[in-house]
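FW: tagging you since you asked about this chain on Friday. Here's the raw sequence from the shared folder, copied in full. Didn't touch anything.
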Amino acid sequence: MTEKKALKTESGLSLYHPLVSFGYFVAVIAGTLLFIHPYFVLISLGCALLSAAMINGKKMFLASLGFGIPMFIFIALANPLFNHRGATILFYLFDNPVTKEAIIYGIVSAGMMFAAVIWFTCYNTVVTSDKFIYIFGRVLPSVALIISMTLSLIPRLMAQIKVIADTQRSIGLDWKSGSLMHRIRAGARILSILVSWALEDAVITADSMRARGYGQHKRSTFSIFRFGKRDGIMLSIIVLLFAAEVAAYITGAGTMEFYPAIVAPKTEFIDILFYIAYAALGIIPAAIQMKEELKWKQLK
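HL: got it, structure written out here
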């Protein structure tokens, strides 16, 4: 049993070829950002939350909610306060009309941004830096390396800030307590130490790359990824569902009129098919994850 648990290093969409997982997130995030439509937004947000809960783990999932929910509330409230378009005036705030159309548009657009944030957290879990470099390394090796290093630098900086702040707190330089000037000085000290650490780490990384001969000769590559039959089937499904997504956008099924008055979403047969196809695309990570977890439970 211990051996079986040790073998389970990753599961779900991560087990597929990097082209499959990367292509999936391109398709689902593109749909999330393109469709300003309540049904599509609800489908995307629901699938994103379900996928994140199963892929990211409890701690990361709660952290993403801690960022996403305040963002949702802010966008939903800000739109009717600054956008006064719409035919149905509900009340006046500071002599400015607050309309039903602006409120609903704010809620839908906030849900769209919330879903996009959650999908990006799933992307960061599944499409790791080595997979990203594998996909773009041969085509744009320098750009792929820079993007990969930048994305990995952000969590490293956040972790280092915590280490520095804890160390400073142990010697009585807590930036969360004391007078305002004390907190400013403590915060500036933490920032100064962080910048020094980042510069030193950059020099060490550059020296390490130079010592390994980076940039001197044509780079050879090695990859553990192999594109198999299962990857081809899944990629074909994603492409087919993405084609339905594009068709929904072209035909206007993925858009909705909010101004000057709200036009109810279409519920014709073809529109329902588009909703089902988009839901099928969004549920893929959770479905694969559930299937893999079922396999591991049977092996225990």
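FW: The longest strand covers residues 89-93.
HL: agreed, and The CA atoms of residues 136 and 142 lie 9 Å apart.
FW: great, closing this out.
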